[in-house]
Amino acid sequence: xxxxxxxxxxxxxxxxxxxxxxxxxxxxxxxxxxxxxxxxxxxxxxxxxxxxxxxxxxxxxxxxxxxx
Length: 68
Known about the structure:
With 68 residues, the chain is mainly α. Helix content is 68%, strand content 0%.
């Protein structure tokens, strides 16, 4: 019985992981970059944009964003 429960749980998580990966593949590069950034990074970019002016992403290379 416990084996059946475990198999059902792991199958569901595997199916969800596959669905998330397929959804990620359909995203544009800008959407992927947005999903990879943390909420703190987005808030910091907004603060910099309002306080200092300008676009904080203007120095990033569009084709190859920096990896963390």
